[in-house]
Amino acid sequence: MAAVAAATALFTVGVVHMLAAESARFQARTLTLATPGEPAVLRVDQRTDTWGPDQYPVVWLDPVSLDSPAAMPPGMTTWPEPGGWAISPGLADLAEKHPALAMRFPDASVLGDEGVLNPGELLAYRHMPTGGTMGVDTVDVAGFGGPGPSIGEGTEIDVPAMALALTGFVVVPLIVLAAAGTAVSAPLRAQRLALLRAVGVATKRRRRLIVLESAAAFLPGLAAGTLLWMVCRPLMGHIPVVNRPVAEGALRLPLWAVVLLLLVLTIAFGRLAVVVERRGEERHQATPRPRAGRPRLPALRSAPAAAAVLLLVVATFSAGDSASTTTLAGVVLLAAGVPLVLPLIGRIVGARMATRARSPEDVLAGRRLQYDPRSAVRPLYGIAALLVITPVVAAWISAARDLDPPTPPDVSAEAVLLRGALGDVDFELLLRDLPDAVAAPVSQSTSQGNAPVMELGATCTDISRLLNTRACAPDGTLEATAEDRLAGVVRSPMEVELVRPEFDRLTSESQVIILAPRSTQFEMDIRAAALGNPAALNVISAADLTLQESDLVSWIFGGITVLSSLTFLSLAVGMVDRTATGRRGARLLTALGLTHHRIRGINVREFLLGYTVVAGTGLVAGIIASLSWSNLDPSIAFPLSTILVTCALAALLAGAGIVGVRVMTRTSS
Fold it and tell me: What pTM does this model have?
């Protein structure tokens, strides 16, 4: 268990360290806007380009002086020639595999690692060509690393939010796993320590023996886990499940951080060993008769769960980012607080069952849960945390994947939208390699009924040729069928009206639609032509307007994978502990004259009672958390189907637990 804890903890902290380094690089290339009266060293116009489903920034740079180091973005060592490119390593690797993409960035230099977030990031800088023109969104910049506009999006590298999420997905189950590992065979060790206490060994010395004995087990495990991580870390080019590229050495932690983390784990394992042994010693002290209420369970254990519910209530009366952050904190705290409150609930349920039950088996099972609720519920802590988080994650993922299907494309024609410095574009030169394409300026007017109308600068002849049908009536107006098709091609919710094209009135705030016969090569060619144009342009196609699944979904899947793995490992360890304890209990019951059938019935009832407390509490907490999460956004549906599936899986797991108890009882006999 110590090896798993060490490797998992080092991996988790390494991921946080990687994200923090990415955040620092992201901040280092953030623009510092020149204040009024301050001389600018650079003019910047940030555009975008698209390859497949990925949209990435294309940044035009116009330095005031090539000798000013403040004008050069991170990762660039020398300026390309005017009109030249500097692209990220990820974009360079992609262009090497796809010649159509390489055509967009001829003779490009490659940025250094300090200028990109990770090896897979797509980013391109262009030194403005001689005689080139930037768009209306151009800003004057005094340097990089300031609080101005960012280059690219940093939504994935919110380190505080990611650390909070990792706390719920990794730290909580790690603590449960460590507690389960240190609790194995605790009753047997408690008996031995009771003998030492009986012969007069001092408490401090007994505690020291506990730590030394535990250290002989967990210190080699910590060393093995550290060695395993050191061997696997250099081989990780991507984070598993998340499939995020990892830069060379990005997961490498400073030596002081590794030492500090191992020291924390050592103290944690040592402290857990002392706590487990002390509680076991208290439970196994010789007393004239058992007393209801032993061992003492402080009501303070319910404080985290109560605070989580309070946060979720506060979140329902909040809005915006504060509501999301409060809800996330409440869910994580609820997942951590539910295991703490389970023994309290187990004691109440056990006492009620022992009081109201009629069969001896039910009375004995209830009394066992009442006297020692920790032993009954501790192996199942991970299940409770998983039942809390799973419905919330299901609700979030369903909302993230609830994307509108794209509109079916027209069979004959397609279109892209151009934005940017259109007033300085030579459209004949731009469409030189696209002889069948038509450039149509776009404007907006109102109809007689004050409804908005899109005015498209194209001729009936052009539209008829592109749609392969008669487009206009004799009076020059669009036919109804042709208008519907044309509105679909240009993706306009408004009525479409043809007007005479006027290119001499175009400005940097205008828009032009490029219409062409449908082909697989058109979008590739127009994007290459736009990027090679001396005027800064944006090409917006259907791919840019189609919503994509959030990259955070893969992070959530990764967290769930780690959480599930640690949870089931905790269950396996808990079954080992239960087997060791059950054999002793079975021998005592056999000595009292109970039959094998009666002992098996008692053990099954005891397991089911503890499991019902854990599963029921976890499901109720999960439903409360998912209701709070769904309340954040009307598009987040309540995950009823996931909860039903979770209940079914919990029932199957209960069946597996019963089989395990029966097997344990048979081997104990």
Answer: 0.71
pLDDT of residue 94: 93
Do the beta carbons of residue 126 and residue 84 sit within 8 Å? yes
**DSSP-assigned letters across all residues of 400-457:** HT--PPPPPPPSSEEEEEEEESGGG--HHHHTTT-TT-EEEEEEEEE-TTS-EEEEEE
Task: Dig out the tokens for 658 from the structure.
Answer: 């019963």
> In the prediction, which pLDDT does 33 show?
92
pLDDT tens-digit readout, 294-307: 556 676 778 888 88
Nearest Cα to Cα of residue 416 among 523, 532, 541 = 541
The DSSP-derived string for 462-517 is HHHHHHTS--B-TTSPBPHHHHHHHHHHTT-SSEEEEE---GGG--TT-EEEEEEE
Residues 6+ apart with CB under 8 A from 24: none
pLDDT in tens, 123-133: 999 999 998 99
d(C-alpha 28, C-alpha 33), whole Å: 14
Task: Classify each residue of 165-194 as buried b or exposed e, where b means 16 or more C-beta atoms within 10 Å of its C-beta.
Answer: bbbbbbbbbbbbbbbbbbbbebbebbeebe
Over range 187-205, report the average pLDDT.
64
Task: Give the Cα separation of 349 and 341 in Å (integer).
Answer: 13
Q: Give the mean pLDDT of 206-225.
A: 77
Residue closest to 455 by CA, chosen among 500, 406, 403, 404: 500
Of 583, 649, 575, 580, the C-alpha closest to 607 is 575
How many angstroms separate the CA atoms of 421 and 498, rounded? 23
**Region of residue 408 (phi > 0: left; psi between -120 and 50: alpha; otherwise: beta):** beta
CA 202 to each of CA 194, 216, 283, 372: distance values in angstroms, whole numbers, following the listed order: 11, 21, 19, 26
- What is the DSSP-derived secondary structure letter of residue 535? B
Three-state SS sequence of 254-311? CHHHHHHHHHHHHHHHHHHHHHHHHHHHHHCCCCCCCCCCCCCCCHHHHHHHHHHHHH
What is the predicted pLDDT for the residue at 289? 42
CA–CA separation, 414 vs 541, rounded Å?
9
Tokens of 493: 């919710």
Contact 183, 214 (CB under 8 A): no
The pair of three-digit structure tokens given for residue 600, joined into one six-digit string: 């098996």
At position 636, the amino acid (one-letter code) is I
Q: Specify whether the backbone of 152 is left (phi greater than 0), alpha (psi in -120 to 50) or beta.
A: left
Which SS3 state, helix, strand or coil, does residue 121 take? coil
The residue behind tokens 């590992």 is: 181
Q: Is the pLDDT of residue 19 over 50?
A: yes
CA 309 to chain centre: 23
DSSP H or E segment with residue 365: helix 360-371
Chain-centroid distance, C-alpha 500: 50
